Amino acid sequence: MALKRSLLALSVVLLGLAIGWPYIEDYIKAQTQGCPVFIDTAANPATTAATTATTATTTASTNDDGSSVQKPRDGEAGTQSGQPDAAADADVDADTEASSEELIHLTEAELRKYDGSGVEGKSSSIYLSIGGGIYDVTNGKSYYGADGSYSIFAGRVCDRALALSKLEDGELNDNLEGLTEEHMGTYAHWKGFFAKKYPKIGLLTKD
Asked: Mean pLDDT over residues 55-71, rounded?
């Protein structure tokens, strides 16, 4: 009798999951929409090679980039563990950019003022730089803002950190020396992601 009850209970649970899964999946996707999925490989060195290779060719399936179900996409970033840019970012699609006359020019020091904090002379807008371009990622503030998992990227030059899939302050620069072909593939993937998802509003200039 106890076994029958257990099997019946299990059947009810499985039936509930089968019926409710599409709604659960949609909810998960909505929470992670528009965001690369990033693994801090420094925290888990054993997964570095495998996740970097996988990341370069996949993104999550949502209206844009959710993280629950992975699938190949062309030219968009799928990184690796956490998730920048949430549902507020749902339909950000920055295929167009400002004309060259409208682009602002910022040095690395000036860029750091755009960290979203809005205090001590800093802007409430959030910019980051990759590939020499500056992107306005303010719509992803739930990820790049002060309380976000990727606040380290706010107001920073992110080329090397993104290529290496590392969330480390020391990697926040545009030095690509010594990177492998695999890393460069990941880097190209990231550039495509930001070009697709956020407006390019400026160019990084040397001090």
From this structure: 37
